[in-house]
Design goal:
225 residues; single chain; 6-stranded parallel beta sheet; globular
Amino acid sequence: MPARHIAFIADGNRRWAAARGVSMASGFRQGALAVRQALDHCRELGLEAASVFLMSSRNFHRATAEATVLVDVIAELLHHVADESTGPVRVLHSGALRGNATPQLLEAIEYAEATTTQREGMAVCLGVGYDGQDEIRRAAHRAVTCPEYGPAVKLPIERYLTTAGLPDPDLIIRTSGERRLSGFLLWQASDATLHFENRWWPDYDRTVLTDALAVHMEQCRTFGR
C-alpha cells in the first residue's frame, strides 16, 4: 500500500557521537542534517506529510548543558526547514512546551509555523516537547468541552490532535535498534507499519527509507474487514 505519511523517531544521536569520540553537539548537528535529508527524500516521494520526533517532554530534564545544545540545534533546524528546504513545505509543531522552552526555541517554532502556514507543499510535523499520552488527554479535554459536544454529538478526538487534517502515518521508522514508540503519535499509529532500524539516526541515508518502504509495501492491511 503506498504511503502518504511517514514518521521518524530520530534516535541515537548521543550514541553515534560517543562511538566516534566526538561531542554531543556534533551528534545532534549530524542528526539535524539527517532530518533535512529525510524530509527531502519524503518530499521527492510526493508524500502528503512527514513527521519527526525530535525531542520528548522528558528530554527537557536532561543535564542543563546537554538540553541547551539540543534546543539550540532544534531551533536552527526549524529555521532551516522554513527558509531553505528544497520544496515548499508547511511546518507544524507537535507538542506542549509548558514553560520548558527557551525564548529562542519558542521564537523558532512560531517563525517556522507562521512563515510556512500558507504553503501548499508537504506538511512537516516536528515533535518538540512531545508526549503522546498528554496529546490524547488534551485532545479529549478539548473535544468534551467544545460547545458542540452533547449526548447526540460525539466529536472525534482526531479533530483536536496536533496532526488534525493530516493522514495518519502509514509507516513509522525508528533508528538506533530500539523497538518501541516512546509515546510518539500513539493515537495516530494504530494502523501504521513499524520499522526498526539498527543504525543510529545520524547515519540515516536513503537506504533506510527504501528498506522501510519495501517492508511496508509487503503488508496487506485489511483494517479488520
